[in-house]
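Trying the structure run again after the queue cleared.
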Amino acid sequence: MMVLVLERVRPSLRGEITRWMLEVHAGVFVGSPPASVRERLWAKVCEEAGQGGCVLAHRADCEQGFAVRTWGPTRRAIEDWDGLLLVRQ
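Done. Tokens:
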């Protein structure tokens, strides 16, 4: 499973992402694409985000069971404390 949050990006970018994922709330996308598609979507989002921010959470082989990536300015910051991901506002 994958969750993608887009903040302050072009509406057309959000529209493009809906081809592969379901937009459950404005700017919040959920889906289960293969890892190769996930990487391509992330690259596209980072390339076209402009001044917006992006957060990607996906399943990973670690203690928490998921990994988080960010790009650009987001409302919350993800911090790694000895392998434990925490959210700071």
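The beta strands are 2-7, 22-25, 28-31, 53-59, 66-71, 77-81, 84-88. Worth checking whether this holds up in the mutant runs.
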